[in-house]
Design a protein that fits this description.
This protein is mainly beta. Strand 9 and strand 10 form a beta hairpin.
Length: about 200
């Protein structure tokens, strides 16, 4: 009986040491440079990771579930940090620390600035894409929208506290939600101009 108990205990100890055996256990899979990761995005089988302050590159992609990483920042300005990445259909949008939004239509291999130029002088920490518009949330600069077919970003901050820091944006298709630092969550019905 004692041997059976020891065998069960040893088996439990051995199997509990296997990373894949326990549900909910996180497993390190690799690093795109060993730096802090600022933003992640999955598009199909590719994973993209933004590395602020990287030596030579600021965005990396993995096609093998994170085991191997390659630079994926062709077309991004030098010393540009990607603060957020969002996928929409076959496209990717990236918000930067200097207020620009870039688009990639080839799964992140090449990037170009979105029409409309710079949203604001402060960084973009949230992006949301609806059927008819692209929304950007900034650090202390409010929110902006670039409507389909238009060439300029429009401010859309009515209802938000002054100097609010938007930390995340997400959409359910009908509304855009803004997460903020210290002011809670706000919602904006797509196509309208006042946050609640």
């Amino acid at each position: 009986a004692m041997r059976a108990l020891i065998a069960v205990l040893l088996g439990t100890i051995c199997f509990s040491g296997i990373p894949n055996s326990a549900p909910g256990r996180w497993i390190p899979i690799g690093s795109p440079g060993g730096c802090d990761v600022r933003a992640l995005c999955v598009l199909g089988s590719r994973v993209l990771a933004s590395i602020p302050g990287g030596d030579d590159h600021s965005l990396f992609a993995s096609a093998d579930s994170g085991r191997n990483w390659r630079p994926s920042d062709s077309g991004l300005s030098e010393y540009t940090w990607i603060e957020c990445i969002v996928g929409c259909g076959a496209g990717l949008y990236a918000g930067t620390d200097n207020g620009y939004v870039y688009i990639s239509e080839d799964a992140g291999a090449h990037w170009r600035p979105v029409a409309g130029g710079r949203t604001h002088r402060s960084g973009i920490e949230g992006l949301a894409v609806t059927e008819k518009a692209l929304y950007a949330g900034t650090v202390f600069g409010g929110a902006f929208v670039l409507r389909s077919g238009e060439a300029d970003w429009d401010p859309v901050s009515s209802g938000l506290p002054p100097e609010v820091q938007i930390t995340a944006l997400v959409t359910d298709g009908d509304r855009v939600f803004a997460g903020t630092s210290g002011a809670g969550v706000f919602a904006l019905k797509a196509g309208e101009a006042v946050w609640t």
